[in-house]
Amino acid sequence: MTLAKPAFPTPDHDHGRCTADALAHAEAVCEQRAQKFTPIRRQVLAALLSSHRPLGAYEVIDELAKSMPRPAPITVYRALDFLMTNGLVHRIESRNAYLACAARPRRDLRGGVPDLRALRPSR
Fold first, then answer.
1. 3-state helix vs strand vs coil in the chain, percent to 5
2. Is residue 16 very low, low, confident or very high in pLDDT (cuts 50, 70, 90)?
3. pLDDT (tens digit per residue) in 49-79
4. Comparing C-alpha atoms, which of 45, 108, 53, 46 is closest to residue 81?
5. Helix 15-32, helix 39-51: angle, nearest 10
6. Number of C-beta neighbours around residue 35 at 10 A
7. Is the separation of the CB atoms in 42 and 82 below 8 Å?
8. Contact predicate 114/87, CB 8 Å
9. Residue 66 sits in a domain of what CATH number?
10. Does residue 108 lie in a domain region?
11. Total domain count, the chain
């Protein structure tokens, strides 16, 4: 017997609200830390949020190229580095990919490392 894998995002998922909430959270984090949430940083985060799955840097570039002139890889890598430093994106080293943190991450007891289980759909 094969169990059906649950759909993620769920069929009733409001992607517009999900993205808007995550971008508003990013703005608040940057404002609180006196960091600039530049247009390219916003666009990189929005590209990651649009997929609900980890993307490589060149997949982010391809996504951005659909709506703007193709950005240079270094520009995207710098934006990703900024977003990671501010806890808005996580890098999955084993896949060399990046995942947007759509919710405020929970912290574990070992020194404040984000608990990425909060970012996965429940099984």
1. 50, 10, 40
2. confident
3. 988 789 999 999 999 999 999 999 999 999 9
4. 45
5. 140
6. 14
7. no
8. yes
9. 1.10.10.10
10. yes
11. 1
Residues linked to residue 97 through DSSP beta bridges, in sequence order: 92
Cβ atoms within 10 Å, residue 111:
6
Instruction: Quote the CA–CA distance of 81 and 22 in Å, as a whole number.
Output: 17
In the chain, % of residues over pLDDT 90: 61
In a domain, 83, yes or no: yes
* Percent of the chain's residues with pLDDT above 70: 70
Residue 56 lies in domain: 15-118
Beta-bridged to residue 107, according to DSSP, are 114
Examine residue 1 and state whether it is found in any structural domain, yes or no. Answer: no
CA distance 59 to 71: 12
Helix (H) or strand (E) holding 29: helix 15-32
pTM for the model stands at 0.74
- Domain-located, residue 9: no
Structural tokens at position 119:
């970012």
pLDDT bin (cut points 50, 70, 90) of residue 118 is very low
Does residue 100 surpass a pLDDT of 80?
Answer: yes
